[in-house]
Design brief:
Number of strands: 8
Strand order of the largest sheet: 1-2-3-4-8-7-6-5
Length: about 160
Protein backbone atom coordinates (compact mmCIF):
# COMPACT_ATOMS: atom_id res chain seq x y z
CA UNK A 1 0.00 0.00 0.00
CA UNK A 2 1.34 3.43 -0.97
CA UNK A 3 1.35 6.11 1.70
CA UNK A 4 0.48 9.67 0.75
CA UNK A 5 1.87 12.46 2.85
CA UNK A 6 -0.86 14.53 4.57
CA UNK A 7 0.30 17.72 2.79
CA UNK A 8 -0.02 16.03 -0.64
CA UNK A 9 -3.41 14.58 0.28
CA UNK A 10 -4.55 18.05 1.46
CA UNK A 11 -3.34 19.62 -1.79
CA UNK A 12 -5.26 17.02 -3.80
CA UNK A 13 -8.45 17.74 -1.85
CA UNK A 14 -7.96 21.50 -2.22
CA UNK A 15 -7.33 21.16 -5.98
CA UNK A 16 -10.46 19.04 -6.35
CA UNK A 17 -12.50 21.59 -4.44
CA UNK A 18 -11.17 24.46 -6.58
CA UNK A 19 -11.94 22.55 -9.78
CA UNK A 20 -15.45 21.74 -8.56
CA UNK A 21 -16.01 25.38 -7.68
CA UNK A 22 -14.68 26.51 -11.06
CA UNK A 23 -17.26 24.30 -12.74
CA UNK A 24 -20.02 26.09 -10.85
CA UNK A 25 -18.83 29.57 -11.75
CA UNK A 26 -17.89 29.10 -15.40
CA UNK A 27 -18.70 32.07 -17.59
CA UNK A 28 -21.84 31.83 -19.69
CA UNK A 29 -21.31 32.13 -23.44
CA UNK A 30 -23.75 34.69 -24.85
CA UNK A 31 -23.69 36.12 -28.37
CA UNK A 32 -23.08 39.84 -27.92
CA UNK A 33 -25.33 42.05 -30.06
CA UNK A 34 -24.13 45.24 -31.77
CA UNK A 35 -26.87 47.81 -31.14
CA UNK A 36 -26.96 51.18 -32.89
CA UNK A 37 -26.09 54.33 -30.89
CA UNK A 38 -29.59 55.02 -29.52
CA UNK A 39 -30.16 51.40 -28.47
CA UNK A 40 -26.59 51.17 -27.08
CA UNK A 41 -27.28 54.06 -24.69
CA UNK A 42 -30.52 52.38 -23.56
CA UNK A 43 -28.80 49.03 -23.14
CA UNK A 44 -25.91 50.44 -21.12
CA UNK A 45 -28.29 51.95 -18.54
CA UNK A 46 -30.59 48.91 -18.56
CA UNK A 47 -27.83 46.34 -18.01
CA UNK A 48 -26.33 48.44 -15.20
CA UNK A 49 -29.70 48.34 -13.40
CA UNK A 50 -30.51 44.62 -13.75
CA UNK A 51 -31.42 42.67 -10.61
CA UNK A 52 -28.92 40.42 -8.81
CA UNK A 53 -31.46 37.58 -8.94
CA UNK A 54 -34.03 36.46 -11.50
CA UNK A 55 -36.59 33.86 -10.36
CA UNK A 56 -34.36 33.36 -7.33
CA UNK A 57 -31.29 32.55 -9.45
CA UNK A 58 -28.04 34.50 -8.87
CA UNK A 59 -26.20 36.54 -11.47
CA UNK A 60 -23.63 34.64 -13.56
CA UNK A 61 -20.52 36.00 -15.23
CA UNK A 62 -20.75 36.18 -19.01
CA UNK A 63 -17.95 35.60 -21.50
CA UNK A 64 -17.99 39.13 -22.89
CA UNK A 65 -16.15 42.42 -22.58
CA UNK A 66 -17.11 44.56 -19.58
CA UNK A 67 -20.05 46.77 -20.47
CA UNK A 68 -21.39 44.37 -23.11
CA UNK A 69 -25.21 44.51 -23.27
CA UNK A 70 -25.66 40.96 -21.95
CA UNK A 71 -26.38 39.25 -18.63
CA UNK A 72 -27.14 35.79 -17.22
CA UNK A 73 -28.57 34.17 -14.10
CA UNK A 74 -28.72 30.60 -12.78
CA UNK A 75 -27.83 27.14 -14.07
CA UNK A 76 -28.93 26.45 -16.73
CA UNK A 77 -28.61 30.14 -17.54
CA UNK A 78 -31.40 32.59 -18.09
CA UNK A 79 -29.84 34.99 -20.61
CA UNK A 80 -30.50 38.61 -21.54
CA UNK A 81 -29.22 40.36 -24.65
CA UNK A 82 -30.05 44.02 -25.21
CA UNK A 83 -29.98 45.72 -28.60
CA UNK A 84 -30.75 42.65 -30.70
CA UNK A 85 -32.43 42.92 -34.10
CA UNK A 86 -36.20 42.45 -34.30
CA UNK A 87 -37.12 38.74 -34.24
CA UNK A 88 -37.51 37.33 -37.76
CA UNK A 89 -40.93 35.90 -36.87
CA UNK A 90 -42.26 39.20 -35.48
CA UNK A 91 -45.13 40.52 -37.64
CA UNK A 92 -47.38 43.56 -37.14
CA UNK A 93 -50.15 41.10 -36.20
CA UNK A 94 -48.03 39.05 -33.75
CA UNK A 95 -49.44 38.59 -30.28
CA UNK A 96 -48.00 40.89 -27.63
CA UNK A 97 -47.91 39.53 -24.08
CA UNK A 98 -47.78 42.23 -21.42
CA UNK A 99 -45.95 41.45 -18.20
CA UNK A 100 -45.79 44.22 -15.58
CA UNK A 101 -46.13 46.99 -18.16
CA UNK A 102 -43.68 45.54 -20.70
CA UNK A 103 -44.83 44.03 -24.01
CA UNK A 104 -43.11 40.81 -25.12
CA UNK A 105 -43.08 38.66 -28.25
CA UNK A 106 -42.77 34.99 -27.27
CA UNK A 107 -41.21 32.14 -29.24
CA UNK A 108 -41.09 28.59 -27.94
CA UNK A 109 -37.72 26.86 -28.33
CA UNK A 110 -36.66 23.25 -27.88
CA UNK A 111 -35.97 23.70 -24.15
CA UNK A 112 -37.75 26.86 -23.07
CA UNK A 113 -38.89 30.21 -24.36
CA UNK A 114 -37.32 33.23 -26.01
CA UNK A 115 -39.01 36.52 -25.14
CA UNK A 116 -38.24 39.80 -26.93
CA UNK A 117 -39.55 43.21 -25.94
CA UNK A 118 -41.62 45.00 -28.53
CA UNK A 119 -42.73 48.61 -28.79
CA UNK A 120 -39.57 50.01 -27.14
CA UNK A 121 -36.43 51.83 -28.25
CA UNK A 122 -34.22 48.72 -28.00
CA UNK A 123 -35.18 45.10 -28.46
CA UNK A 124 -34.32 43.14 -25.29
CA UNK A 125 -34.18 39.36 -25.69
CA UNK A 126 -34.53 37.00 -22.72
CA UNK A 127 -33.96 33.25 -23.03
CA UNK A 128 -35.55 31.20 -20.25
CA UNK A 129 -34.96 27.42 -20.03
CA UNK A 130 -37.99 25.23 -19.28
CA UNK A 131 -36.45 24.35 -15.89
CA UNK A 132 -37.83 27.71 -14.70
CA UNK A 133 -41.45 27.05 -15.79
CA UNK A 134 -43.55 29.08 -15.89
CA UNK A 135 -40.86 30.80 -17.92
CA UNK A 136 -42.65 34.17 -18.08
CA UNK A 137 -42.04 34.58 -14.32
CA UNK A 138 -38.49 35.70 -15.17
CA UNK A 139 -39.96 38.70 -17.01
CA UNK A 140 -41.51 40.00 -13.79
CA UNK A 141 -38.04 40.42 -12.27
CA UNK A 142 -36.70 42.15 -15.41
CA UNK A 143 -39.66 44.46 -16.08
CA UNK A 144 -38.57 47.30 -13.73
CA UNK A 145 -35.22 47.79 -15.50
CA UNK A 146 -36.87 47.62 -18.94
CA UNK A 147 -39.62 50.09 -17.97
CA UNK A 148 -37.11 52.49 -16.40
CA UNK A 149 -34.46 52.50 -19.15
CA UNK A 150 -36.04 51.39 -22.44
CA UNK A 151 -38.60 54.03 -23.46
CA UNK A 152 -42.01 52.86 -24.63
CA UNK A 153 -42.69 53.76 -28.28
CA UNK A 154 -45.83 51.69 -28.99
CA UNK A 155 -48.04 50.11 -26.33
CA UNK A 156 -48.78 46.40 -26.35
CA UNK A 157 -52.11 45.79 -28.09
Amino acid sequence: MTRVAPAVRGLAVLTGAVLALAGCTAEVAVDVPSPGPEAAAVCSALVADLPERVVGQPTRDVAADPGAPVAAWGTPPITLRCGVPAPAALEPTSQCYEVDGVGWFAEQGTDGWLFTTIGRTAFVEVGVPSRYAPEADALVDLAPAVRTHDPLQTPCV
